[in-house]
Amino acid sequence: MVRRTELPGSLTGLSRALRTREISPVEVTEALLARIESDGTNAFITVTAERAMEDARRAETEISAGAYRGPLHGVPVGIKDLVDTAGVRTTMASAFFEHHVPDRDAAVALRLRQAGSVLLGKTNTHEFAYGPTADRSFFGPTRNPHDPGRISGGSSGGSGAAVAAGLLYGAIGSDTGGSIRIPAALCGVAGMKPTFGRVGKGGVFPLAQTLDHVGPLTRTVEDNALFLSVLAGHDPMDPYSVDRPEEDFARDLDRGVWGAVVGVPTGFFFEHVEVEVEARVRQAVETLQSLGAEVREVEVPNVWETLHAQRLTLAAEAYAVHEERLRSDPDKFDDQGLERLLKGEELRAYRYANAQVRKLLSRREFEAVLEEVDVILAPSVPIPATEIGQRQISINGHAEAVYSALTRLTGPTNMNGLPSLSVPCGTTEAGLPVGLQLVGSAFDEATLYRFGHAYERAVGPAH
């Protein structure tokens, strides 16, 4: 059996070693299952040890026979527990679905299965994905690997924590107001919210259907590009899915950023940002500049209005998803989740209609800026991880609810659907990770990966 310290540090490295048969998927899976057994982050709701070993043995046989399926073949992964997995419990972290076992795979779960990956289990989430802390799950809070008394960020907290703790090599998350990028930032991993419609959502339990995105969390940017290349594609079961040709999202990783233009926003994205977080992000800007990128200050207009529209849309659509359960069995919800959901009943229809107009205007406003720069760079989250259960925070004297602070910088691109990548950019003095956010043009994830990889290569990977 391979000792844990001998496992490759990245999905990319593991994939290479598996393909050349330097290491066995069975050995890797056994080692990771042992890690999970002794881990204290509560990153998993269901561990699929038997299924994982079957997947690993199948991958080993196929690779040995020369039937290599691609970069995720034999790679151990996790799936957020609101994504349907045939024959594997899928709970939405809720008492309503504690024993629910789907009979078919979601589109993204099927893509991972067809890619030959090894499913280690279903990762923990905030109940019904309706919260950015991941500390309100029917199965208990997810804990940050860097400080178990603090949140992992959410709602895809189990996916972020599992990747950061070295329990697997990549995981699926979902993102409606930041739920991939927030745990990526707070746990110190890479997380991509792709362009709206890029990754199919068939079989993924909805939070807000016009805002929901599905994407990967991984240890490195290159890993993330490889993972998205498997997940992306048209899904006929998702009415919002876009039919585009397959892409290799890692194709531009080695181009560098010499002569490219980074837009650093004035105003919204750097307002009420914790001092150490801003310092790390500003240092990242300097690093990209040292690599030959031009840095320009840019103004993205009306972002506060876009954020308010996103939050209103989320509240209205989340209530619509749960209306029947709210009427028939409200006490079965987590009490904090119930309180948030019920606020959606009070919203007026004209405000929702106005919010949808703001969605279209926001896309135009961001795209106008992106005609002048290659990427927009900002903090992913304005604060480091807070304590589990904490609900209020002061940021440089600015009092704010934790939920509001965590989603403030990520929510706007859920509204306009543009791709956004969170990349680790150092830690605070207390050792808590910080993330930088790269925003790009629609369906231009490859450029975000190019910039993220250039930065990561310059400073060294976080893992």
From TrEMBL:
Its EC number(s): 6.3.5.6, 6.3.5.7
Residues of the Amidase domain: 27-448
InterPro entries: Amidase, Amidase_CS, Amidase_dom, AS_sf
PROSITE patterns in the record: AMIDASES (PS00571)
Keyword Ligase: yes
UniProtKB keywords: Ligase, Transferase
Enzyme class label: ligase
GO MF annotations in UniProt: asparaginyl-tRNA synthase (glutamine-hydrolyzing) activity; glutaminyl-tRNA synthase (glutamine-hydrolyzing) activity; transferase activity
Domain of life of the organism encoding this protein: Bacteria
PANTHER family: AMIDASE AMID-RELATED, TRANSAMIDASE
Name listed for the protein in its UniProt record: Aspartyl-tRNA(Asn) amidotransferase subunit A @ Glutamyl-tRNA(Gln) amidotransferase subunit A
Organism: uncultured Rubrobacteraceae bacterium
